[in-house]
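Quick one:
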Amino acid sequence: MPRLADLWHRLRTLLQLRRAERELDEEFTFHVEMSARQLEAGGLPPDQALAESRRRFGGLTRERQRARDEWGVGWVRDLAADFHHAFRQFRRRPGFTLLGTLTLALGIGATVALFSVVQGLLLRPLPVRDEAQLQVFWDPFDWRGVEFDFVKERVPEFASLAAYSLDVTTLEGKESSSALLTTISSAELFDVLGAAPLMGRTFAPGEDRPGAEPVAILSWTLWQQDLGGDPAVIGRRVRLDGTPSTVIGVMPRGFFFPTPDVRLWRPLLLDPASGDYQGNGYLALVGRVRPEVSAAALDGGIQRLTHALGERFTYPAAWDKTKDAGLTSLRDFTVGDVQPALLLLLGAVTLLLLMASANVAALVLARTTDRTPEIALRAALGAGRGRLVRQIVTESVALAGLAGVVGAALAAGVFRLLVRSLPLRNGLEATLSLDWTMLLTAFGLALVVGLLVSAAPVRELLRGQVTGVSRERSRPTSAPGHRRVHGVLVGVEVALAVTLAAGSFLFVRSVARLFALDPGFDPKGVMAFDLVSPTQGSSDAERRQTYVDLLDRVLQRPEVAAAGLAPRVPIRDPGYQGPVEIEDRPDGPGTRFVVRLRAARRPS
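Output:
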């Protein structure tokens, strides 16, 4: 209890420091006046009594300081005084303050903005349970339904396995229709992911097989924007591709799979009697590894699976699933090829921050040397080296703190521009944002940078290089150690600049080579539009004619040189997959091959 009372007294004093100072002055005044009255009662005149009372009481300043030390918060007052002195110095040297703040703010702002991107893509957990246990099988979107059913019975290392693919679904409304990116999956998908719905339920066993009623699960965004956040949406019938389907669930806000721009989940139709089931490879397989399975056991299971696939199925060389088998973590599969670019950019801005720190450290060291007379005078008045070191560190941290505030504002201003410049796809940019962790990152960077910046002048001060004064001109001396530190800082800046410049050159050249790749067509002046035709109240022939009429109207515009129709846009998606037969092949008529294809139409 005494310790708690002492702690409470110190906290109260710290929070009400001005009141404590006022009460201390009132207490000292009271004691001096009481002593003076006693002396007056003994016969001394009032003026002499007051003077004698003060003399007997001792130095008021010293006694007040001793009382403050008893409060246990003297270090807070000293620190506040140091910061006050630091900002007073900044006002006296606005050029130094502006240059140091902007230099550090550039490094801190770039680092904070890019770290927020790295955190969102590489560090923030995916909206699934135990994501480290989720693995995506090789050759994604090349698996057939028959292969999925074969595989899931032969992977005991996995607790569960699901198949899925991507499609576009037309949601028909009363006044308009919209095209929604949709995940079609086997019934096990949400069990594999370990994702629970916000409302309703997920797919039940058998809902991906023939005879099941059409059902759908909505994303939170679709539920809010297209269906008005209707709390009674579960059980509601909506028309998807012209088919009435029952809404059975709504996923929570922030959930996505496999990409953030998916707005709807529907069951696959795994029908052994259909041609797609037997011959069309369009599925990706994702499985949850059992916690007790080791990496070696998992690798052995994959090798046994590839052997079984080779015995059961016949693969052409270009589509042989028994070769190059492997698993990819769900994180790597979701992020894709952006991880190396992010890490490279993070390394570049780290070098930029180090360059800024070295530059400002040189400025602070030069500024400290210019203040040698002041430092020598303070030392002569009794300030120890620890007190002087604390003042230099406080000024460096205060300067870095200002830079941290400016850097955080800079990061907030350029964050969206940075996100748009990165090679992100499939709506991943929508998951990135700046939040309170940005402020913590900026504060932490500012503190670390402030300590780094103060290292050089503190080292010189402890070695006695900036406490001497020239007898001839009363100006700071330029000691050999001081010059050596400046040389080291300049050398570090040059080395970091050369490294950053070389890395930037290689990065720009790599990007230029990517843009120089020939896609097989001229993309200049080409625009693509997604079209949706409602199925309700119109036949297939009428919908096809609608597209043809629209194409003719587009071609009549004078600014259009050519136009066409296609269900799949080049580069954006790989196209359809399906079997073809070449009758005159030397290995016999009727030989089947799985190929990628796109349908296209141009005006006759």
